[in-house]
Amino acid sequence: MKVFERTIDPLTGLITTVGAQDGKLIHHYEADTAPTLDYTLDLRNSEDYTKRGIKRNWWHVGHISEVVGLKMLQEDGFNPWTAHASEIVAFLRKNKEKYGKLVTTEGQF
Question: What is the domain partition of the chain in residue ranges?
């Protein structure tokens, strides 16, 4: 692939590469998801994170990074940025094998 541009978003760590191959324009996205997975694991293992959230009338059940959201959109046809919270929860439940590490709670949601 002939690369025209490569950018790195300093906030998300998302690397975007734009290039051409076989007469086609290609956008390629990549990122290190390890920090996000470590973050969700820490939240999931926290003894009081879920309890404090529920007491404040919210429950953080998952954290979807930008690159994982793009994967959901491209591979599964699911857009987490336009979906209602209940749709996101249902999607995470349905696809627990693939996206289960994004869940931030051990509770039954």
Answer: 1-31, 33-109
Q: How far apart are CA 104 and CA 109, in angstroms?
A: 11
Give which of 27, 96, 104, 97 is closest to 67, Cα–Cα. Answer: 27
pLDDT tens-digit readout, 44-84: 999 888 888 888 888 888 999 888 999 999 999 999 999 99
Give the type of residue at 50.
T
Give the separation between CA 60 and CA 105, rounded to whole angstroms. 7
Q: DSSP 3-state assignment of 98? A: helix
- Report pTM: 0.74
- Whether 97 has a pLDDT exceeding 80, the answer reads yes
Alpha carbon 109 to its chain centroid, in Å, reads 18
Which residues, listed in sequence order, are joined to residue 62 by a DSSP beta bridge? Answer: 103
- Residues in CB range of 23: below 8 A, 6 or more apart: none
CB atoms within 10 A of CB 15: 15
